[in-house]
Amino acid sequence: MNKSDLVDAIANSADISKAAAARALDATVDSIKKALKKGDTVSLVGFGTFKVGKRAARNGRNPRTGAVIKIKAAKVPKFTAGKGLKDAVN
Predict the structure, then answer these.
(1) Contact by Cβ (8 Å): 60, 71
(2) CA angle at 26 for the pair 31 and 33, rounded to the nearest 5°
(3) pTM, full prediction
């Protein structure tokens, strides 16, 4: 399922226009991004939790030359599925 399929499903389920569904989806995704950027956790009960994890700096190798390169530390988004989502899938 891609974004346009999701917008169609939201529009049909909520009985709203596709344009309104697209705006709602965009607003939801933007709100989650902003919260994660501030370092907050976003919990949707029954669905899951979005949070920011930390990846330590490390050494890697350039596969073409074999030279050692330094990979910087980074913040990465993480998602943990909730019980409701796990039950729906299984």
Answers:
(1) yes
(2) 30
(3) 0.81
Q: Where are the domains of the chain?
A: 1-39, 41-90
- Reading the block at residue 9, the tokens are 């499903």
CA 85 to the chain's CA centroid: 15
Please provide residue 29's backbone torsions phi and psi, each rounded to the nearest 5 degrees: -65, -40
Contact 41, 49 (CB under 8 A): yes
SS3 assignment, position 57: coil
- Reduced to 3 states, what is the DSSP secondary structure of residue 86? helix
- What pLDDT digit, counting tens, does each position of 43-59 carry? 999 999 999 999 999 99
- Give domain 41-90's CATH superfamily: IHF-like DNA-binding proteins (4.10.520.10)
